Structures are given as structure tokens and as C-alpha cells.
């Protein structure tokens, strides 16, 4: 795990002075070794580097970019549980991530909610909420929990009769595959009575390696359905070429694209923003080029809407 800018700059062979670094950002640098090794050396504009480098531009207020752009706090009557959509509830299982993504929509979320006493209460709520079929372990990143903690929570969910599906949202299999490849967890998932889905988060084909392929293969072998979500980011993946390459490489590693999210307008992320008209143009090119199953749904999250809203031509 790299948390020092000097260490990162050494590894990627760039002088810190050449970068517009925010050295004491309140959302500090954090990047796993695997992800850092996928960054091209000597390239200040590398699309992976851009995702993790604290940039001074983040300090600049941008109109319309706010602390809670998706209204998570309003859908959060109980600490540790977010219930916005019919039939699905999101359990904030961990306050941490293995990586700090600069564009993260949860960078200002009050994560003390992920404390164990809170999610225990959240599980009790789920026992009584018989309309919920699917629980999504999210965070933060649930894979930052210990293997035993994850196995325990899965066991508790399996014991709730009205649940049919367990979904895990995690960036760890992509950014730190050695941490996600956990034999006991995989055994638990393969034996589970629940349908299991792992939604990873990968934005650029360079993030994928032989190690990610091995890790993802282990989940496939455990019978887990693998999907990807990405975020459309200026200077990272804002072209049909990059997104087509991403879909193809994900598919080779056993993963189908699910969502490509338009950026949530969170304070600090303004530098990644892409106009909707341009997003639509990229989507159009992508669907001309790829089989339908390799085209992610372009969506945006509008606070208060009952689903993630599909981008349309008239947006
Ligand atoms: C995105 C999200 C979900 C899952 O939505 P799907 O369309 O089922 O992938 C569930 N709960 C919350 C709070 C979400 O933000
Ligand atoms: S892994 Fe996901 S939740 Fe964690 S910082 Fe990145 S975008 Fe945010």
C-alpha cells in the first residue's frame, strides 16, 4: 500500500515538482502496489495516475459540485443501511477502501456509520424488511474487511429467509487482486444458497493484469456472476476507443459491463466532468462498435429517482 507521494513518484519515475500536488489533501493519497504498478512510468497524464493523484484543482470550488450529490444521506434513516431502490438495500459494511479515487462520490460520506454495532442493527432491520430480496455489501469497500468478518456477515444474510441474492460491490479485485483472492470466502460463496454477484469497478483497460484475471477466474469458478461498473471520467476513459478496449478486456477476464456512470457532482471532482452531449456521443459510437452485451448502460444517479437513470439523446 502506497500512501506517500515520494514513494509513488519514485515508482512511476516522475519528479514531484512536475505535478500539481495537493500534499495535505483531507482525502489523502492511497494506492495499492498492484494498481501503482499498472501506471505507465514517466507519464504525468497517465489515465490511472489521474484517478489517484491528489491534485490542487480539487480545492477549487466548482458551481454545482456538492458534498452529497446523490442524496445518500436522505435515504439513510438508519446508520449503515441505504435503502433507495425497491427490493434492494445497501449495507455499508466497511468505512475504508484499498484505494482513494479522486472522483469518489462518497469522499465526504460520514463513514463512522460502518461501525460494527451499526451494521448489526442494520441486519436486524433487514430481518423485518420482507420486501428486500437483495443485499448489496458496499462501503467503502467490503473487501477491506477481514475474511472472517465477511464470512460472518454472509452467514447472517443467508439466515434471512426472504433474501435471494447477495451482491458485493468492490474495487479490490481490480486494484489489489491479491487481497480479494481469498480461499475461505470463495468457498463460502460457492456453497451459499444465495445467488451471488460481484460488481467490480474498473475504468481503464490498463487496470487489468494477469493477477486480476486470476482473481476474477477464482470468483467465476465459485459460481459468482461478474459485472463491472465504471465512471466516465475526463482524461481517463472519455473515448469510445478506450471504453471498447475496456469492455473487450473485461470480457476476456470473464466480466460483463454493467453500468458506466456519469460523474456524480461531488465537491472536488469537477476536473473529471464530461458534458452529457459528449457522453451521449461516446455511447453512440460504442454501441455501433460492440455487441450489445459489451455495451455498458450509461446512467446517472438523480437524487430521489427510484432507479439509476439511463442517459438519453435529448439530455
Ligand atoms: C446503485 C445503488 C443500488 C443498486 O442499483 P442497481 O440498479 O440494482 O444496480 C442500490 N442501492 C443504492 C443506494 C445504490 O446507490
Ligand atoms: S473504491 Fe469506490 S468507494 Fe472507494 S474511493 Fe474508489 S470510488 Fe470511492
Q: Helix segment count?
A: 11
Mean pLDDT, all residues: 94
Q: How much of the residues is beta strand, in percent?
A: 5-15%
Q: Please list the strands of the largest sheet in the order they lie side by side.
A: 1-2-3-4-5-6-7-8-9
Give the CA-based shape: globular
In words, what does this structure look like?
This protein is of the alpha/beta class and 315 residues long. It has 2 domains: 55 residues, no CATH class; 238 residues, TIM Barrel (Alpha-Beta Barrel). The chain contains 11 helices and 9 strands. The protein has a 9-stranded mixed β-sheet. The protein is globular. The termini are far apart. Iron/sulfur cluster binds next to loops.
Write a concise keyword list for the protein shown above:
single chain, 315 residues, alpha/beta, TIM Barrel, 2 domains, 9-stranded mixed beta sheet, binds pyridoxal-5'-phosphate, binds iron/sulfur cluster
Amino acid at each position: 500500500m502506497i500512501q506517500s507521494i515520494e514513494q509513488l513518484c519514485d515508482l512511476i519515475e516522475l519528479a514531484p515538482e512536475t505535478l500539481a500536488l495537493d500534499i495535505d489533501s483531507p482525502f489523502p493519497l492511497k494506492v495499492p502496489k498492484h494498481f501503482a504498478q499498472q501506471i505507465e512510468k514517466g507519464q504525468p497524464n497517465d489515465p490511472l495516475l489521474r484517478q489517484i493523484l491528489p491534485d490542487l484543482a480539487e480545492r477549487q470550488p466548482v458551481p454545482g459540485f456538492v458534498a452529497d450529490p446523490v442524496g445518500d444521506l436522505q435515504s439513510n434513516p438508519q446508520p449503515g443501511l441505504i435503502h433507495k431502490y425497491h427490493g434492494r438495500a445497501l449495507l455499508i459494511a466497511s468505512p475504508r477502501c484499498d484505494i482513494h479515487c479522486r472522483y469518489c462520490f462518497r469522499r465526504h460520506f460520514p463513514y463512522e456509520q460502518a461501525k460494527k454495532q451499526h451494521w448489526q442493527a442494520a441486519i436486524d432491520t433487514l430481518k423485518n424488511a420482507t420486501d428486500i430480496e437483495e443485499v448489496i455489501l458496499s462501503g467503502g469497500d467490503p473487501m477491506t474487511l477481514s475474511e472472517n468478518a465477511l464470512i460472518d456477515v454472509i452467514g447472517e444474510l443467508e439466515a434471512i429467509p426472504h433474501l435471494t441474492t447477495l451482491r458485493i460491490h468492490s474495487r479490490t479485485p481490480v486494484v489489489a487482486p491479491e487481497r480479494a483472492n481469498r480461499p475461505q470466502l470463495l468457498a463460502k460463496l460457492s456453497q451459499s444458497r444465495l445467488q451471488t454477484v460481484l460488481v467490480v469497478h474498473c475504468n481503464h483497460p490498463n487496470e487489468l493484469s494477469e493477477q486480476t484475471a486470476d482473481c476474477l477466474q477464482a470468483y467465476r469458478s465459485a459460481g459468482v456472476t461478474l459485472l463491472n461498473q465504471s465512471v466516465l471520467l475526463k482524461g481517463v476513459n472519455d473515448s469510445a476507443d478506450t471504453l471498447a478496449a475496456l469492455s473487450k478486456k473485461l470480457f476476456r477476464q470473464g466480466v460483463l459491463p454493467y453500468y458506466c456512470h456519469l460523474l456524480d457532482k461531488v465537491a472536488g471532482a469537477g476536473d473529471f466532468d464530461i458534458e452529457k452531449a459528449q457522453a451521449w456521443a461516446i455511447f453512440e459510437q460504442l454501441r455501433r462498435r460492440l455487441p450489445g452485451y459489451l455495451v455498458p448502460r450509461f446512467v446517472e444517479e438523480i437524487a430521489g429517482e427510484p432507479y439509476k437513470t439511463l442517459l438519453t439523446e435529448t439530455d
